[in-house]
Amino acid sequence: MREPESLCGLTADEVLSLIEPSGFRYSHATLVTNCIYKKRIRDINHLPGISNKLRNLLSGSHVPGISSPEQSLESVDGSKKYLFRSRSGLLYETVYIPDGKRHTVCVSVQSGCRMGCKLCATARYGFHGNLTAGEMVNQVIGIPEAHLVTHVVFMGMGEPLDNTGEVFRACSIMTAEWGLSLSPANITVSTVGITAEVENFLRSSECNLTLSLFSPFPDERILYIPAERNHPSGKILEIIRSFPARKRRRMSVAYVMIKGLNDTDSHLDGLKSLLAGSSVRVNLLPYHATGDSGFVSSSEERMMYFKHSLVISGISASVRKTRGADIHAACGLLASGLADYKRKAY
Ligand code: SF4
Asked: Which domains, from first to last, does the chain contain?
């Protein structure tokens, strides 16, 4: 017997195509998607406001497809990391970060990653497979804090623009009225840069985009972010800068700061000349050591110095706080703590 398919991951039009031959209309399709994405109903027999005829039609072939994480870890700072397993057995992690009125979920798009960035624990885990849009959306609606979520960042395991179709679909579901109804201004896709896909993303989505830069100098960047070879950051920034700005849409650069490596005065000058006159914002991030890299993060003072210098030169900049480092949930650490769950799971 065929396994029932998940409704989570389908658009309203796709649900309509399932039910239209039996006489149902678009309003019935959105009734179903609202039950899945907004009310997060996990049993098809409990979808409220649905006729028996429609329920019977769907229940033979479909399930809501919302699943809970297998395990979780909680940080001393209140953030939580969840371990999910796909139907095919792929492992992937999701991080929930509460911060005042802002509740962010950091979503994975792949199990592992194949981009090979040198200082990233996910790269060392290797690439195990792409996640579907349904599995991405489920990371938001399948966690206990789903009702609180205000922001989504595609910054978990994997490179979003290496799984573009499914990421675009997940963004559509998250922003649609019949879906999660999140504002595109509250959704950010983070990439190391895949040239053609960046253009594609800017044209077809209204969500925010952030480029992981690491160094303003291509010769140096290529040593740590191999994608630089075929997808030069200079070209990607040119595309981002030349794209017509949309109200409330934020373009940014993520800059992980490592003491003595990319936090020198010449790096600061390089950043300024790369971004001068643009509206691209710089997010300065502390480095979280992985393995035996021997590197340490720049000091808070140095990060604040970078921030102030950038701001004085007319470039918008901020320093991001570390969250979830003690549970290996901070940037660049996902997949490095898979063994922790057995030890600390609650
Ligand atoms: S930094 Fe991002 S793109 Fe690079 S290996 Fe890690 S997860 Fe992949």
From this structure: 5-63 (1.10.150.530), 71-344 (3.20.20.70)
